[in-house]
Amino acid sequence: MSSNQHPMLNVAVKAARAAGAIINRAALDVESVRISQKQVNDFVTEVDHASEQAIIETLLQAYPDHGIWAEESGREHGRAGADHVWVIDPLDGTTNFIHGFPVYCVSIALLVKGRVEQAVVYDPTRNDLFTATRGRGAFLNDRRLRVSKRTQLKDSLVSTGFPFRPGDNFNVYLRMMSDVMQRTAGLRRPGAAALDLAYVAAGFTEGFFETGLSPWDVAAGSLLVTEAGGLIGNFTGESDFLEQRECVAGNPRIYGQLVGLLKKYSKFATAGEKAELRQNTLRLVDPETKPGTQVEEAGKPEAGEAGKPEAEA
């Protein structure tokens, strides 16, 4: 850990590496890991819990008056109502992990009065450590990060996440992916949103978008992106996205182009945009649908969809 880092970031790095050590040991014999299912296609393992416990213990040992907001244990640890709140995803990409697919990470962010001030995303399989402190830049293993300089979508690599739970609206997502895929050099779905954002910050990809994400999926990655010179917000381009369950990020030029494509899919889209989207979505399912057909129900969330996270398990 660098002596030049903010003290709170140093503690977060210590916590992330402790969690990474637990994950790497378990990865040596992943078939023996006990797995349970929170809901269909949403898995949690004993490794998630052990990793989260190690992170929380490390953070609270250093800062006992701070709050905790973690994926598996919620807000049951730390001090309620604290201005400083650690937002934790102990293993982003659990589904990848239990299959031995080496794309997963630990994500830790510090919110101070609701604003992300410190961020760590740690990839234990590659020993890649992404860090950021507000106003001090973003780094990968002590190397300063800058977002990609590409300016056109046709030259850009964009990452996303696919819907995978019952109730997710696949038809709307197909239209969204179709709009982006036809205009980019490639669309990727690695399976860990925190790493997707870290890769935007590093310039490995030009952009990222996904719906249904929870704050612990995007908090740390959001600071990495902005400190590397990128932009992040909801699908209409507003920066207050953390709990809005829709996220788009990219270098400034690509971000603007992605927002232009995705804003009609936002829950904050205009009534006209939503009506057009419902019409087009129904035509995707039934090409015989004529313009003007009453399609008020098409494209609306199915029963049980509202409030359901779509983030990678």
From TrEMBL:
Its cofactor is Mg(2+). PROSITE patterns: IMP_1, IMP_2. Signal peptide: none annotated. Its EC number is 3.1.3.25. One of its GO terms (biological process) is inositol metabolic process. It catalyses: a myo-inositol phosphate + H2O = myo-inositol + phosphate. Gene3D superfamilies: 3.40.190.80, Fructose-1,6-Bisphosphatase, subunit A, domain 1 (3.30.540.10). This is Inositol-1-monophosphatase. It comes from Ramlibacter agri. The lineage of its organism: Bacteria, Pseudomonadati, Pseudomonadota, Betaproteobacteria, Burkholderiales.
